[in-house]
Amino acid sequence: MVLDMSAFLLDEKHICQCDNNFIFYGNQSSIDEAVCQICNPNDQLLIDLSKIPDHICKIVICLTIYDTGRRYTFIQFRNIMILLSWLNNKFDENGEAFLKYCIDEKFSEETVVLACEFYRNHDKWMFKWIGEGYKGCFENLIVDYGLNLKGGN
Fold first, then answer.
1. Residue 143: which H helix or E strand, with range?
2. Separation of alpha carbons 57 and 47, rounded Å
3. How many Å apart are CA 88 and CA 22, to the nearest integer?
4. Counting Cβ atoms within 10 Å, is residue 71 exposed (0-12), middle (13-18) or buried (19+)?
5. How far apart are CA 120 and CA 105, in angstroms?
6. 112-129 pLDDT, tens per residue?
7. What is the model's pTM?
8. How many whole angstroms separate alpha carbon 48 and alpha carbon 106?
């Protein structure tokens, strides 16, 4: 069982325009390196909002359980936290935490949690905790955001 964090970079229609706008263990950086995944004991997404292209209006961050046969859900996990931190530079691994969100037991059936999002409000970036379980599987979420599972998007 693996717990993974990923990000979807969405346009004004809430669609990923290309596969490179989906950041996960198989694609760890957007082309412009505005969003990068660092796989370490505490998975991190580094987001540089100043590098996000103008056509990207929203960045949705989700947590996913990849199961190797058994049916795990978020109820089996305890003490999952998302910390938002200001980093002094890209080599700063800890930074200063300024927001914290804990995943609780309310997700008894879900294997995907839409955790939070950054979104543009006029020319300013805003942040919102979502904290909602996604009832479908991760593959359905990928399709919902406009990506083709067979590639070629």
1. helix 138-144
2. 14
3. 25
4. exposed
5. 31
6. 888 899 999 988 999 998
7. 0.83
8. 31
